[in-house]
Amino acid sequence: MNPFDALIEAMSVAALETLDHFDLDVALAAGVEPGRARAWARLREVYFGVTKFTRKQRDAVRLARGRSLDELALIERRIKPVTDAGQRWGLRLALLGVAGGYAAIEKAARELVPAEEAPAVNQAKFGPSRRGKRTLHLTYDEREMADMEHAGRQGIDPSKPAAQQLADNLVERFFGDGGIPAAAPRPMVLVPLPAFTRILAGEGDDVVLAMTDGTTMTGAKFLALEFGEELEVAAFHPAAGAVNLYRTQRLANGKQRDLARLSMPVCAFPGCRHGAEACEIHHVTAWKHGGETNVDNLAPLCRYHNRVNDDDPWRSVRGRIAMIRGAPTWISPGGVPVKNSDRGAMDQLFGYEKAPR
Fold first, then answer.
1. Dihedrals φ, ψ of 197, to 5°?
2. Model confidence pLDDT, tens digit, residues 277-287
3. Which positions fall inside the HNH nuclease domain (predicted)?
């Protein structure tokens, strides 16, 4: 059997056997999209996990044989809004009994489990940067949105595509006449400490570098000698990671946050796309366990992942963040390290593309 045929068999006629041997940690480490991997993990729990509906589970296993992973995942997505576990099992068995493949199951699911639309709320969501562009998704009251669309359509050329003209007009109205303050990004230079230095000791807000010629100097003095006194420079050690952020004046209160965000530009949990600027700063070794507020113990985590992170490493259920080669890295409950982004300072400076196992 060639590899493609084996893949199709594993995802269709042998789907239940695949789920029986599924391991979430291995799937994530192999690069499977996290959302898909978690969906498969939930399927394994449904068909092989512990439940008080053991007879229904046996019937479901029998009916699921020959179904594809996508069909099984579709059923779980459609019955997810149902809160009663017994009712979910009944719907699951009913959909497993539908003949005709994916499309037939989807049609039956729409009839058996009408989609409940959540009430719309006013919200704005900004997507991650891609090729110099970002996406804004705005939900607001229809009257105000109609007014915005009307304003955006003023003066557009009907012979040309409207979407780009709408975007340009709205941005012009948004920023025109200086009405909206522009973001002011801080230019910062990332600098790897040369091989002839090593971290010797901490000294307040600075560090002392030991030189191979027998002398020592502070990190701030070293960077001033190398780059002058006008640049804002962040220093990174190839093993220890972020060292300090140096300025020509007293260090800013946000220094440690800046360095944590440079080390990981997004939330450190795999698959999360919250930018570091919108994240909370997490103590890798928890404060309650003696973790200090130092740059080598800080990582950006979004509000949700900061709360589900396992602060007790001996009781890992959802996984936890650890520092590996100076970069925040998620450690799965099975001990597999997975890094969310390779755009952090350590990767840019030293080429650490993958977290070591």
1. -125, 160
2. 888 888 888 87
3. 255-307
Of 87, 100, 254, 271, the residue nearest 186 (C-alpha)? 254
Q: How far is CA 25 from the centre of its chain?
A: 16
Burial (0-12, 13-18, 19+ Cβ within 10 Å), 305: buried
Give per-residue pLDDT as tens, 231-282: 666 777 776 777 766 555 434 357 778 888 888 888 999 888 888 888 888 8
Phi/psi at 303 (5° precision): -55, -45
How far lies 325's CA from each of 50, 137, 242, 339, 352, in Å?
39, 36, 10, 11, 8
90 pLDDT higher than 90: yes
Neighbours of 331 (CB within 10 A): 19
- What confidence category does residue 348 fall into, taking pLDDT thresholds of 50, 70 and 90? confident
Distances, alpha carbon 100 to alpha carbons 16, 67, 76, 259, 304, in Å:
19, 11, 18, 55, 40
Domain boundaries, the chain: 3-112, 189-245, 257-350
- Residue 230: which pLDDT band, with cuts at 50, 70 and 90? low
Q: What is the pTM of this model?
A: 0.47
Cα–Cα dist 213/158, whole Å: 72
First to last CA, the chain: 32
Q: What is the amino acid identity at position 166?
A: L
